[in-house]
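Repro:
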Amino acid sequence: MKENSKEYSDTLEHAINVLDKHKLQYEFKNHALYIQHPTKDWKAYDYRFTTNRWGTLINRRNKYRKHYSCKNVEELVDKYILSEE
């Protein structure tokens, strides 16, 4: 029998633990984590931990209104955020 609540592959607590481990600055608001790029002040990421969707923010705006998918928060941090340094 199916449960009423949806199980998410990433939880907020897990995502925060990964970001803290990598010493990334972030802010939680509007059901999303806004992650600051470690070296580029004008660049940030909008990460939806419930769906593993994310977008790039330039000067706090998603200019092209695009969102991408990743397997989990670890993939986002390792493959997209930290690899750009």
